Request: fold
Amino acid sequence: MHENLIILAGGASSRMKKVIKTKLSTDLTAQANTRSKSLISIDATGRPVMDYLLYNAKQAGYKHIFIVIGEKENLIKEFYGDNPGGNNFHGLTINYAIQYIPKDREKPFGTADALHQAITQYPELNDQTYTVCNSDNLYSETALKALRSTDHANAFVSYDRDALQFSLQRIARFALVSLDEEGFLKDIIEKPSIEDSELYKDRFGKLRVSMNIFKFDGAMFKGYVVNCPVNEKRNEKELPTALLDMVKEHPTSVIGIPISEHVPDLTSKEDITILKEYIEKHYVDMDWNR
Reply:
């Protein structure tokens, strides 16, 4: 089983910085406006929420962590170490990859670009297997371990949409995944209508969504990441685009692992209080030595 986890934390956090009416404290509001989402501290320890993702990763058996950060991100080094690589954090090796912004852009160039820069800065990953995920979703130990345990070279967690505890309006914006009878990825459908959604139920009668956590064979996926086209609507290079390009050329190359559970998310200020309550309920006794 592989031990590499790439965490994408170099995004601009634009939605988090939007001004909205909330009951957040002055401190949390200031953090939301100035910090990367995964570095917001929501409890009395002063530690960032990324700790909880790293905790789950360690319990799932990952050892080598590659965090993709922005060019001007320095705060993260106060939490996880000053060195570019080889920092020790509770037995995890923390390495940083920088997502540089092209000269003709103001914001990062997307998730596929982030992964491209990570595998360029750590070329050994192109001969290995790795998991890659967002930094602003709190993926469970179960989900992370499932990707380590599967025998399939490429995989993603195929979440039961009914188990996600978001508003119906928010869930309706999620893309659905289309799977074949054996659970292999066929397509990703953006914003399907209610009527069309019924066409994409899987063999268990469930609608499935991707929450952007994947396992890849580095050698197989490299070319699709490097050559990922720009999404015309978002003007970014996105991982799902590279993924579907690989699926088109290699059908049955990416298996969906069905899991039914909620995935806490940190997209906007409204999510901070919800995540705080979730962590207080589910992470009462964190034991890094377990």
